[in-house]
Amino acid sequence: MAEVILKNRFASEEEPLAPEILKAGAVSGLAGGVLMAVWAMFATLALGLGPFAVPQLIGATFRGPEALLQGPTTIVIGVVLHLLVSAFFGTLFSMLVRRDTPRGIAALAGVAFSLGVFVLMTFVVMPVVNPVMSSRVAMMIGTVLVMHVLYGVALGTTPILRRKFARRTEQLVPTKVTISAV
How far apart, in whole angstroms, are the C-alpha atoms of residue 81 and residue 117? Predict the structure, then answer.
């Protein structure tokens, strides 16, 4: 008797990764972006700058120095831009981390990644793209650093989300077929 084992079409290693990576990255990035925004609101209130100082500063990317004097439109632009960038970096992190990464390692990797984003955005991108924000962030660098650490903690949930969003069409149990010669 010969025994043949048929595999399911997609084993867990062969599944299409793009949808799971995009979803997990966007969700963890957006969650981190929201954590950053909440911390920024409380921190800037404590500094006497008002709760929407950071979105206004982000909005200065498109509006220039007048953004600090303008109202809700600039705040909305700042929030949308912040969340888009958060989702982008979340997706980038999701491409770098495996779905079987342990929680503690994923959290440390998320914080390390977010500190790299902090350095890149604060000292390379921001001075070129948004000099208004760059000059003001220097006065609240500790707040911005804590914001990025919180973002990294949220990124640490990416492997869990990748497992959740992984495509599971069938049980991954091989089907055995017995062929007998008569």
Answer: 15
Rounded to whole angstroms, the Cα distance separating 60 from 67 reads 5
Q: Which two tokens stand for residue 143?
A: 């707040």
Q: Do residues 29 and 86 make contact, with C-beta atoms less than 8 angstroms apart? A: yes
Enter the tokens of residue 127. Answer: 């001075």
Instruction: Specify whether the CB–CB gap between 40 and 50 falls below 8 A.
Output: no
Instruction: Note down pLDDT in tens along the chain; length 182 residues.
Output: 555 554 444 444 555 678 889 999 999 999 999 999 999 999 999 999 889 999 999 998 888 888 778 778 889 999 999 999 999 999 999 999 998 999 999 999 999 999 999 999 999 999 999 999 999 898 899 999 999 999 999 999 999 999 998 865 334 455 555 666 66
Q: Which amino acid belongs to residue 27?
A: V
Contacts by residues 37-44 (CB-CB < 8 Å, ≥ 24 positions apart): 37/79, 37/82, 39/143, 39/146, 39/147, 39/150, 40/143, 40/147, 43/140, 43/143, 43/146, 43/147, 44/140, 44/143
